[in-house]
Amino acid sequence: MRPGDGRVALKLNPECVPCLVRTKIADLLKAKPQATLQDVKRVMSVIYQNIHELPPPVIATYAFREVKRVTGINDPYFDLKSSSIEMAIRLRSKALEHLSLLDADEALTYAVKIALIGNSLDVGVAGYQIPSIEALLSQLEGTFVLDDVAYLRDFSRKSRLALYLLDNAGEAVLDCVLAQVLKNMGLKVIAVVKSGSFQDDITVDYVEKAGLQSFFDEVIDNGSDSACVLIEVLNDRLRELVSEADFIVSKGMANYEYISEPEVLSRLDKPIFFLLRAKCPPVAKSLGVSEQSYVIKLFKSQHKAS
Predict the structure, then answer these.
(1) Which residues constitute the signal peptide according to the record (predicted)?
(2) What is the pTM of this model?
(3) How far apart are CA 241 and CA 239, in angstroms?
(4) d(CA 115, CA 125)
(5) For residue 83, how far is the Cα from the chain centroid?
(6) How far is Cα 246 from Cα 296, in angstroms, rounded to an integer?
(7) Is the dihedral of CA 71, 75, 80, 83 positive or negative?
């Protein structure tokens, strides 16, 4: 079976709708605790008007933009992002200490696990609770579907440039561990962050606080505040890097939900390693794993798969 074959196509699922409603209303109340029913109706209207074939992250983007318009708050999760980064920095220090004790093959597998457990630092799934640092460390003994680490190892040994699409703010701190391992293997690693705020995702405003510049060769913004990297609105620098990169590392469910669609994969025309925790049934089903599994999965556009 080729990388990426055998999955269930991930479109908007009926299960996605209550999740979108609950998370966006939670976003509204986070930014404006005294929100009115009229405020709720405005956000709900955006979701309702877009319930068709759009991928869930695109609808979530439109709804979060409405939250920002309704409340006048541009970064509702500022406090959560800051505390998440601080907690993750402590965990990153522990991870780097352990990394120094491992050989090259062990280091890559361990760094992938650290990057994956970072995807637990996410407010974007209804009912999902962000774990403590102790709980995160315990997740290293959780369910990992790591078959494609071998592909990542092979690609890294024969490549020059990897493009790394970051997700949540605290998670991005832990992605530094994997970036360091990839650089040790001879790769140049460039991180991509959001230009504007979406929930608790990392943006250009938090790069220095998270210390990303110490681990990535370069950090660039994607020119958007969308939940995922939308191919239609890539800025010129990112388009150039997509063309130059040997492969892409893509973090989180939102990027997976959008980029894994065959049309987008074909347009990007690059091998893409998706790293995420399958936090909801539709995503878990599409990947063929149990819910809450940590997954690294290689996808290629069909006409280039081998």
Answers:
(1) none
(2) 0.92
(3) 5
(4) 19
(5) 18
(6) 17
(7) negative
Domain ranges in the chain are 15-71, 83-300
Query: Could you give the CA distance from residue 306 to residue 291 in angstroms, rounded to a whole number?
Result: 29
Q: Which residue carries 């120094």 as its tokens?
A: 100
Which pLDDT value is given to residue 304? 40
Question: Within 13 A of 162's CA, how many CA atoms are on the CB side?
Answer: 28
Of 115, 140, 137, the residue nearest 215 (C-alpha): 115
Question: Is residue 7 pLDDT above 50, yes or no?
Answer: no
Range with the poorest average pLDDT among 191-195, 239-243, 302-306: 302-306
Residue 76 has pLDDT above 80, yes or no: yes
pLDDT tens sequence across 33-46: 999 999 999 999 99
CATH architecture of structural domain 83-300: 3-Layer(aba) Sandwich (3.40)
**pLDDT per residue as tens digits for the range 168-211:** 999 999 999 999 999 999 999 999 999 999 999 999 999 999 99
